[in-house]
Design brief:
The complex is a heterodimer of chains A (148) and B (184). Chain A is mostly helical and 148 residues long. Chain A contains five helices and no strands. In chain A, helix 4 (87-111) crosses helix 5 (115-145). The longest helix of chain B is centred in the N-terminal third of the chain and has 24 residues, at 3-26. Classes of the chains: A mainly alpha (148), B mainly alpha (184).
Chain lengths: 148, 184
């Protein structure tokens, strides 16, 4: 089978098409883009990346995060004392901490692992569920929402 | 120079390239202008990376191509209609050369610029199913296999559509020449 004519045709068309000059964009394109940018505006700081937040908001949020983590660690570590907290609150926290500790111990014993291993597995499962949610959400978006 | 002025200069440098890519893929001036606007809005979001970057032109070209192909894919039903109906025989629709007055006598005087105008018009008038793979092959320099994969059609269909498009364009080229050439 002779492909020579097809090759010549391809070369001819390629040559002619590549000689075509670029077309001129519409005169109002830049103005349209400028207008679209202006109408979009900047999103509020709290919906942007944390790194784009104002310094004061970054400082306060970081402080709050550390305080929260420190508080949780402090409570789980049992470092608090009844003297440090009001009587009613300390009693409630003690009951919660005791129940949580007992539950952890029960689950660890049932599974035949240590409490720390159980916590690590629980964290792993949480991460897996989180990633699963993202995956399922993406799948749902691609299948059901994204225009085709 | 402010950021806005820099971006405006950036747009001035690339707007013709972006628009040309879009109009050749979409075959429609209004859609191409919309596509160019969307591409520059994306570029604005990444202007920090694109500013002064020698690869900015390439990024714009690929982004334009992807945007246009997504646009066409979104209207896949229409695309298929073109494939099945208009794509069968492009000779049935009158071309620009047929519509100009007294083509036989006029053709001899058509100069290069006019011939290119006719060719550009003929390219735009091709059915989507022929024009898109042709543009991807000759302007975007994609292989047949890449085009088939990107358009989600068979390799043989891509080759057939491009061949039909070339034959249609060859007629315009030979009509535009003072001395029609014997071509394959």
């Amino acid at each position: 089978m002779n492909h020579e004519p097809d090759k010549q045709l391809e070369e001819l068309i390629h040559h002619e098409l590549r000689q075509l000059p670029p077309l001129r964009a519409p005169g109002d394109l830049i103005a349209r883009v400028r207008q679209a940018i202006a109408s979009q505006g900047a999103p509020p700081w709290w919906s942007q990346s944390w790194f784009a937040w104002p310094r004061a908001a970054q400082f306060v949020s970081a402080l709050a995060a550390f305080a929260l983590l420190g508080g949780v660690a402090w409570l789980l570590g049992g470092a608090w004392t009844e003297a440090a907290l009001p009587g009613e609150l300390s009693g409630t926290l003690a009951a919660l901490g005791g129940a949580f500790g007992a539950l952890l111990q029960f689950l660890a014993t049932s599974a035949g692992v240590s409490v720390s291993m159980l916590l690590a597995c629980a964290l792993g499962a949480l991460a897996g569920m989180y990633l699963g949610c993202i995956g399922l959400g993406t799948l749902f978006y691609r299948v059901a929402v994204q225009p085709r | 120079m402010t950021n806005a002025e820099e971006f405006e200069a950036f747009m001035r440098s690339y707007q013709d390239m972006v628009y040309t890519t879009a109009v050749r893929l979409l075959g429609n001036d209004a859609d191409a202008a919309d596509a160019a606007q969307e591409v520059f809005l994306k570029a604005y979001e990444r202007f920090g990376e694109l500013r002064g970057n020698p690869r900015a032109g390439g990024w714009l070209k690929v982004t334009t191509r992807n945007h246009c192909l997504n646009h066409l894919t979104r209207y896949r039903a229409r695309y298929k209609l073109f494939t099945d109906v208009a794509g069968q025989d492009d000779d049935q629709t009158p071309d620009l050369a047929d519509r100009v007055a007294a083509p036989e006598t006029h053709d001899a005087d058509v100069d290069t610029a006019d011939r290119r105008t006719l060719l550009e018009a003929a390219l735009h008038r091709l059915p989507d199913a022929q024009r898109v793979p042709l543009v991807l092959y000759h302007f975007e320099e994609l292989s047949y296999e890449e085009i088939a994969g990107r358009l989600e059609v068979s390799l043989s269909k891509v080759k057939t559509d491009i061949h039909r498009a070339r034959i249609a364009l060859r007629k315009k080229i030979t009509r535009g020449r003072a001395q029609p050439t014997e071509l394959p």
